[in-house]
Please model this.
Amino acid sequence: MKIPTPHNTAKYGDFAKTVLMPGDPLRARFIAENFLENAVLVNNVRGINGWTGFYKGKRVSVMASGMGMPSIAIYAHELFDGYGVETIIRVGSAGGLADDVKLRDVILAQAACTNSAFARSLGLPGDYAPIGDFCLLKKAEHLGKELNADVKVGKVLSSDVFYDDSLEKWKAVGVLAVEMETAALYMKAAQFNKKALAVLTVSDCPLRGESLSAEQRQTSFTQMIEIALETAE
Model:
């Protein structure tokens, strides 16, 4: 892939081998300013901030993905194919579905169900099962327990529909939480033989009408970010 791209003005080498990817550009800035040392802005096309700095001596980047599978797929494709990135760790919010999932839990997405037709872009003669990298998953689970986080591992739903009336059906087949990006990220990682993991904070429980306040979100998301940064290779 020729770089820079229409979505990324960074030069080759500007991104670290591991990139944390929140959906929100402001969360990317928050991570860069509060967790990384010597962070440098390497991309800001369409307000999608990309930063590279150091966390405990490890060179790490953070860049927003925007909302939805098409958006994260664009950025993941370019990072994997054009910029030599080896690992992307999504850090985002999710809506808890399972009865034992509560607000502020951290979900590690072992696999991602989806109602999207995104997998058709792979041209496979059947259905593809998007799964996260097992080594990253094990490491993140261990680190989450060390940080005393309420960590749960299992399936999520990556939905193309934000306002979805089918969530009870997904809950019934063991889906822990719903979000909008992970399946596409896992498919892009598989396409390029790279690594990916989604580390998600439960910000609301739509079937129970529960949600976090702004202050609670800030505290919970910080714990998720620490797990992801400690997991970064």
User: Anything to note?
Assistant: The mean pLDDT is 95.
